[in-house]
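dumping this here before i forget
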Amino acid sequence: MTRKKIINACIATFREMQKTVYVPNPRTRGKTSTGNLAFNALQYKIEGDTFVVYIDEEVAPYAVYTNEPWVSPHWNGKKNPNEGWWERFCAEFSRRLAQKLRGELK
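structure:
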């Protein structure tokens, strides 16, 4: 498989997942969330032969807090409903990409 086909598969996977439930928190968009993290801060870049998915912290400096446990007394012990979304996103991205490439990612 050519480098171009692999990169195109990565980009297609990124675009289809950008709007999914893996990126916090689609249920609240238009209510308490603008979708800034999903639509603006979640980005990719190509560095040589590496496809990198990342969060632009200048666009969404709060992003790290969306993935972590809530420890502030303000939350009265409630669990962050988005906790672990980044790990779930990466696992699903890898699964979908492997399926598109008809192989196994290592």
